[in-house]
Write a structure and sequence with these properties.
- With 110 residues, the protein is mostly helical.
- Helix content is 65%, strand content 0%.
- The radius of gyration is 19 Å and the shape is elongated.
- The N and C termini lie far apart (58 Å).
Amino acid sequence: GGTLCEIAMGHDANVDWDVEDAKPRVMIATQEEMQKARIEVGYRDYCAHLLIPLNKCRRKTFYLPWKCEDERHAYEKCQYEEYNRRMRQATRLKKAAIKSDADAESDDSE
């Protein structure tokens, strides 16, 4: 079971986020597929595999906003989760930098 988004992304809501971030990430869409689908370079990210069917649906339905809702939701959810992953990574890096600065200061004072 699961929603289209969960199935498309292989996401399980019960997985701990730190464990999820530690997994090696793999591009699902190949460069050839993205070129063939005319995906602009700026959009060739870890969510591109969801953008390909979304753009296909959009072209087929003349970009009508009430069409392709499942595809759009799956793509937007992927983008949101990617953003959250980057923010968690930035927070971890910032905390590590603060800790290393504090460690360096405590070493200097001794």
